[in-house]
Specification:
Elements lengths: L2 E6 L1 H14 L1 E7 L4 H9 L4 E3 L6 H6 L6 E5 L7 H4 L5 E6 L7 E2 L2 H7 L4 E8 L9 E8 L6 H24 L15 E2 L15 H10 L7 E5 L2 E11 L12 E3 L4 E5 L2 E8 L19
Parallel strand pairs: 1-2, 1-4, 2-3, 4-5, 6-9
Antiparallel strand pairs: 5-7, 7-8, 10-11, 11-14, 12-13, 13-14
Helix pairs in contact: 1-6, 5-7
Length: 293
């Protein structure tokens, strides 16, 4: 049986780790200190676990005495350095949440929704010294439906991570593993997002505002704007047919009841779900684009 080392973080890492341990021999787990459920699961199942930043040789010092065939990285918080990459005897690979070479980098499923994509996916690829640049082993395409959010896409991903890992390992054992070099001319990269990056720009088109909001909807930190100095987190908007006057500022409140309607560059959106409670909106006033020129 193949001996595995697993690098994983978060709920997606945990759910996949649980499935892997039912079928494979997991020798160790590397995770981050915030993934407390992974740490607890590893302890409960007597799997040696290192929690923390693995760089500067700390992770390698932990794994170096384990005889490992394959290292698999699943939603792992850290970039993997060469000492760990080279420690496996046969294969070190990662599952990335996009159809590489597009959407390299962090939270690719969120960026895909923001950009209005209709499909995303996951890619098994070799880990090299770059960021999501290693040769592609296999991919699974996953549709982005009209009402998908960042969270619902991650739920779709969770169903496919283990089957993709299993496919890689089965192909490895049957000596049918193949590799495809990434086409650099098609590569795109998107960086890490933080809660502060969620501010809505009402000068965008209404379709772009809708994608921005649903990509970051609850339980994610949420897209937001400001009304009279108060932060308003918005979890769902829909396109509105309410007419507006071109001279009105983008962000102007066109209607309050039965739902708040806000003007955008090319029309208006309805604020269908607002996380912030007790907001008394006023028709004719404007949602603010703070910190925007």
């Amino acid at each position: 049986m193949l001996k595995l080392g697993i690098l994983c973080s978060g709920n997606l890492g945990l759910s996949t780790l649980k499935k892997i341990t039912k079928k494979y021999n997991v020798q160790f787990v590397l995770t981050d200190k915030g993934s407390k459920e992974i740490i607890a699961f590893s302890k409960k199942n007597n799997i040696p676990c290192f929690a923390g930043n693995p760089r500067k040789g700390l992770g390698f010092e932990f794994v170096k005495n384990y005889d490992i065939d394959v290292i698999a990285s699943i939603n792992y918080l850290f970039l993997v350095e060469e000492d760990i990459i080279n420690h496996s005897k046969i294969l070190t690979f990662n599952i990335h949440g996009s159809l590489l070479p597009k959407y390299r980098g962090r939270t690719p499923h969120v960026w895909a929704i923001i950009n209005g994509e209709t499909k995303a996916g996951i890619t098994a690829h070799l880990i090299d010294s770059g960021c999501d640049t290693g040769n592609i082993i296999n991919q699974i395409e996953i549709p982005i439906d009209t009402d998908d959010t960042g969270a619902t896409m991650l739920n779709k991903y969770a169903l496919e991570y283990f089957p993709l890992i299993e496919r890689v390992l089965n192909n490895l054992e049957s000596d049918t593993l193949t590799f495809k070099i990434q086409d650099e001319s098609q590569a795109t990269y998107f960086g890490k997002r933080t809660p502060l990056d969620g501010q809505i720009n009402w000068n965008w088109k209404k379709e772009d505002v809708r994608n921005w909001v649903r990509a970051q909807a609850y339980p994610y930190p949420g897209a937001f704007s400001y009304f009279e100095g108060r932060k308003v987190i918005i979890d769902k908007v829909s396109l509105s047919d309410v007419k507006n006057i071109k001279s009105q500022a983008n962000g102007a409140i066109l209607q309050v009841l039965p739902k708040v309607i806000v003007k955008t560059k090319n029309g208006a959106v309805s604020l269908d779900e607002i996380r912030t409670e007790n907001c008394s909106f006023v028709k004719g006033k404007t949602l603010e684009n703070e910190n925007r020129k």
